[in-house]
Amino acid sequence: MDLTVVGDVVLSAWPRRTVAEPVGPADSAFGLLRGGDLTIGNLEVPLTESGQRAEKLVTMRAPTSGAAELAAFGFDMVSLAMNHAMDYGAEGMRDTVRALDAAGVLHAGFGESLSEATRPRVVSVGEKTLAFFSFCSALPLGANATADRAGIGAIRVRQSFEFDSTFLDETPGTPPFVHSSAHEPDVRAATALIGEAKRRNDFVAVALHWGVPFCYLPTAQGPLAQYQQPLGRRLIDAGADLVIGHHPHCLHPAEFYERGLILYSTGNFVFDWCDGWSPDSMAAQEDAHPAPPYQPALLTGPWYESAVFRVQLGGADGPTLRLDPIELDTDSQPIMPRPEVAASILARFAEASRELDPSIVVDEDGLVRRTSKNHNVVEEA
Q1: In the CATH hierarchy, which fold is given to the domain comprising 2-370?
Q2: b/e for 56-65, b at 16 or more Cβ within 10 A?
Q3: How many whole angstroms separate alpha carbon 170 and alpha carbon 159?
Q4: Labelling 113: which of 171, 193, 217, 245 has CA 20 to 30 A away?
Q5: What is the pLDDT of residues 172-187, one digit of tens each?
């Protein structure tokens, strides 16, 4: 089964671009969505004109017409469990689901109850079936579904903070180290669902909204939060063939683990301007919110450099992976990259992935492979 996977997607059917028009002077990269058996992305915005705005620093929504645009560009399925899902409440997500259903775009991750929000979407390709889950660890308060509350599927994260008071005396202002671990009851529930889905289907893919956006990430921490690798591996151990990460808005490493593949962050694919989203949307509005303690420069280099991930499931040695690098233009639209940018994207992706597994090699054509066949050994960098 051939999957075409991309990261965060915001399509709002803005008036200065239609499906038939090129994005700009460069060649559009939307054509890369065609050709596989299934195209999967993360819908990073609710599609609604209704609902009540949540009390958050950044709330986003786009018109329900965005669902038809998703279908026109070739998306077959999207994940909905993400930190902006409930920006306009359960009613906003009900509008989203109705719009996606009308457009023929499959989805997972939202429901009227916990069981519905964590239910996989099963799709058939030929004689094979794929069970697709969507969970969120970047979780606003109250966004998770419960037995009697609509919301998104969640794997919550517990955090603690460590600091050395002696060191801070010498270097005041140094941030603490953040310890994090996935909430064990949520992990057990998710792994049980994945195991059951694997018994009933040929393949299982899990979309997971997790990790730390690059603009907030302490350099000393590395690209991954502490909870991510253990959680990703447990999902693979439970039966997932593929974990698709998003939320950091940049590319993070990939890891072949056992007979599965973990894409820690698939970056951005397209970010149309929408209600609540603009270059200054990360800055506090005086009439709505107090100023946050830090003002990240979000729209910088990592935001604009991304990839389309080609994943083949069902091989003798587990999943295979190839990257097609892309750039985002100044309007955050996907375009084919300049040769030097494409080479740089692949080189940085390879370097980061080798921090997790030194045997990983990324060829010039984007093929990601391992030089060692011992898939159980991951050396410390």
Answers
A1: Purple Acid Phosphatase; chain A, domain 2 (3.60.21)
A2: bebbbbbbbe
A3: 25
A4: 245
A5: 988 888 999 999 999 9
